[in-house]
Amino acid sequence: MPSVLPLDPPRRLVRALGSRPDSSLTSGWLTGLPALLERVLEHWELAPERVVSPGGRGSLVVLVRRPDGSPAVLKLAAPPASAAVAEAAALAHWNGWGAVRLLRTLPAEGALLLEQLHGEVSLRSLPDAKAMLEAASAARRLWVTPPAEHPFRTVAEHTSVETDTLRAHAPAEAHALVDEALELRETLVGDAAEALLLHGDFRQGAVLAADSERAPWLAVGPEPLVGERAYDLARLVRDRLHDLMASAGAPAATRRRINKLAEALDVDPDRLRGWTLYRAAASGTRHLASGNREDGEALLEFASWL
């Protein structure tokens, strides 16, 4: 079966993997990607249609046809393998409720076969107010009790590995902000009252249009964790950040967004504010560490509004 992989993988994927601390590992994965794609296509007897571009930042996504002619999406996740295992486990547990349906998986290859949604139509295609309403509805479906035996890290475990990056890469003028973010994290993980299955990277762009009786919008690309809902909502608060920064009264608009989301989903607004500040500061310092100064500084400015 001929490969559909272009001469070069999608640029977004190459850039994202090249900026990761484990880039030596992912560069080897990129080199072997054509052969990996061939193996999985042959194993599942899939007919490739096209590689999705710009695609994702941590996986190759290919539109395919199954042996019966039905459409599907093949996702090949970059290392570590544990990320694909966790994603597959979360999708299997949701079983199509609020999220894309998992059809098959090959954990050793980091391969997931998914139902095909409208990948070109996310909630970002809607006006922001409508997108936020739909996002709230989609998120509510995902927050369920995790299975008794699961591979998911907790929010406390996940965020504990970020503290060194926060301290090492925050610019001098942001040290007070980073100190506040770290103090907030300690408080929030210390008294969290919920242990629900979270999407982990929930945002408007991760919710796609679906031709489904289950729901008109379904989440994709989870980085699942177990923790409280406020952590999951915190990434959504800063959606369309550059548009927000260009508008008048952005800090006040951000605080209103926090209050609206907290009220709509019965989440403590103070906890949502705290996780929003922490996650923006953590993401900002990661961008600075990878050389992306523009986005890093924008995220730290956003965090300072809170």
TrEMBL record:
Keywords from the named record: Kinase, Transferase
GO molecular function annotation: kinase activity; phosphotransferase activity, alcohol group as acceptor
UniProt cross-references to InterPro entries, sorted A to Z: Kinase-like_dom_sf (IPR011009), NH2Glyco/OHUrea_AB-resist_kin (IPR006748)
Transferase among keywords: yes
Gene Ontology terms describing biological process: secondary metabolic process
Stretches assigned to coiled coil: none
Pfam families from the UniProt entry: APH_6_hur
Domain of life of the native organism: Bacteria
Protein name: Kinase
